[in-house]
Design a protein that fits this description.
It is a single chain. The chain is globular, with a radius of gyration of 20 Å. Helices cover 40% and strands 16% of the residues. The chain is built from 12 helices and 10 strands. Strand 6 (164-167), helix 5 and strand 7 (191-198) form a beta-alpha-beta unit. Strands 1-4-5-6-7-8-9-10 form an 8-stranded parallel β-barrel, surrounded by 9 helices. It has one domain: Alpha-Beta Barrel (TIM Barrel). By secondary structure, the protein is α/β, with parallel strands linked by helices.
Length: 329
Amino acid sequence: MHYPFTRKRRLRANQAIRNLSQEHHLTVNDLIWPVFILDGFNRTESIDSMPGVQRMSVDMLLDKLTPLHQQGLNAIALFPVINESYKTDDAAEAWNPEGLVQKAVKSIKAALPELLVVTDVALDPYTSHGQDGIINEAGDVINDVTIKALVMQALSHAKAGADVVAPSDMMDGRVGAIREALEHKKYPTTAIMSYAAKYASVFYGPFRDAVGSAANLGKSNKNTYQMNPANAREAIDEIGMDIDEGADMVMVKPGMPYLDIIKTAKEHFNVPICAYQVSGEYAMLQSAIDHGFLDEQPAIMEALLCFKRAGTDAILTYYADRVVTWLTD
């Protein structure tokens, strides 16, 4: 290929030919909307570190979901904001059949049965110490004891009607235990979206504020179970192990700082690769938008298209409600 016989600009000459030659596209089918839910009715709360995102009671959420679903939104992911009085060392509220998530799933599926509902399987919203697992007297997270709790939590979500359970805890072996329990209890169609490559990232800060776990966690960290941001090959081991244990799809989290992990995972595995545009990514982008440094729609759409280019099949993004409207206008 030599100039002038090959001129790459020929395929950039006008919008029509640019559309024709575009390699990747973002559609409503790529989006999962993560939402923070509250107990009670007619309740909304703003989140200081995530301007434009609200915690909502389920009735208020349904008011927003119904038109979005009509516009093409296919999936949501639920994250509970639990009253402090329900938080305990053993996180028992996590598998309460009348708990916030379990009731929310029932209400949403009753109102919008075709909407895909993904639930977070992790204990940190329910623990008094803010960790994703059960801890011993030394403060260490006990892997196998935690798995038993996660299994009970996942089963309670499946029984409530969740389409997908998403273990985000990073305990070794939890996917296999959840898959075995789902099969044994006759929930064979409940899918598992494993947070297989979840890094110990500073970009989760606003999320922890949103669900109220930051204060409980205090100065502790999650480095003994979430991945070292310096490691890439380890992510492929983690993803492969979770697929072998029965994960139907896998998650890379955070998103944009880890596009290399997404690309490598897509090249290695033949399952849907999901990514989470996490709270810190949202906060940075939204801050630049709010200060007038970036144009809102082009900046958000470009960021999400980069996920698709890297190989992502589904994107959890707090911008999903806006993007669905933009794509369908």
